[in-house]
Amino acid sequence: MTARRALITGITGQDGSYLAELLLGKGYEVHGIIRRSSTFNTSRIDHLYADPHLPDVRLFLHHGDLLEVTRIMVLLNKIQPEEVYNLAAQSHVRLSFDEPEYTAEVTGLGTLRLLEAIRQIGLECRFYQASSSEMFGSSPYPQDERSPLNPRSPYGTSKAYSYWVARNYREAYQLFTVNGILFNHESPRRGPTFVTRKITRAVARIKAGLDKFLYLGNLDAVRDWGYAPEYVEGMWRMLRADEPDDYVLATGTGSSVRDFLALAFEYAGLDWERHVRFDESYLRPAEVDSIIGDASKARSELGWEPKVALDELVRIMVDADIRLLEVGRGSEWVDRPRWPGNEGHVR
Ligand code: NAP
Ligand code: G4F
Known about the structure:
The protein is 38% helix and 15% strand.
């Protein structure tokens, strides 16, 4: 039997790395698009990568960028994936206020470029769009698939554009496109400038005596934080459903940044109020005050259910950041995949 073939944009990111692990564990041949960089940018997937000259290799990386449609067409034509997961984005909300045009190019138009390329070359594939709870913005919580979109940032507006493009290509051209509307999900591989990882990294450094203070913005914002490996499983389930549709993935529990801070510092035996200072440069021109998701549809139709609650998530992340300092690897993650049969790909 030939392996099912998937293409992941954004494979070097938090979700891309967990998704690659999941799909390899399910026997897929996985292709990932990476950006050219003057430094190595593959630390999250290095443990999965093997020399393509070796036998039985199932992970392949290709240089490319969502800004260049010709290259995307060439890659789609060459790879002929049956599943495409579009995870690539300028994904930082605060930065999107400083670089709104670039964010729209990648996070908004990038999706259109991919879908139009798929249509133009007549590729038959299933398409996952990484939509975001940030699109709900000021909509009252709990938010589900029927909640209105009221984005409050250039990132949110770009994701809303992509959401509608994916729906439009489903309706107009009968492409199998799904929107996974994911609420915040975190892990030891989370980028260090998102608030959860910024906190757990600071906890480890303060505990080790390397830093004294952590500078943050708005502590009152409420987010629905889940565990990333569980969310990529949901992405896969969406693409394996009988019909294309849109699904919210969330835990259903909201907590403030202050709650997260207290849990993380307390777990390490520290008092957060002695170490946290305010820096207004981390405030946003418009804030999403509270987002809490209702994932009932994913639960009933996909059998998806998150298991890791916030206190466990905090422990996983603090432990991992403490371990990183112990092995002297800065901000690179050190957790290893635990799916069966992965040894052939780990070097
Ligand atoms: P992430 O860690 O920031 O990863 C983003 C990925 O996109 C990286 O691999 C990055 O490559 C790549 N990328 C950025 N610009 C690109 C371009 N122009 N062309 C090709 N690739 C590009 O994000 P994540 O947390 O894994 O999230 C995955 C997706 O889900 C994103 O679209 C994000 O917006 C969305 N999302 C995330 C969450 C969440 O809570 N994590 C929630 C809802 C939706 P480099 O490594 O080279 O930078
Ligand atoms: O961790 P954040 O930067 O995540 P945010 O803005 O919720 O966006 C993340 O989740 C979205 C899903 O809803 C994704 F689509 C998006 O790609 C990204 O993954 O900020 C969370 C909250 C905000 O309210 C922010 O104002 O934390 C607050 N915050 C307070 N101080 C801070 C800081 N955020 C950051 N990044 N850095 C701070 O110092």
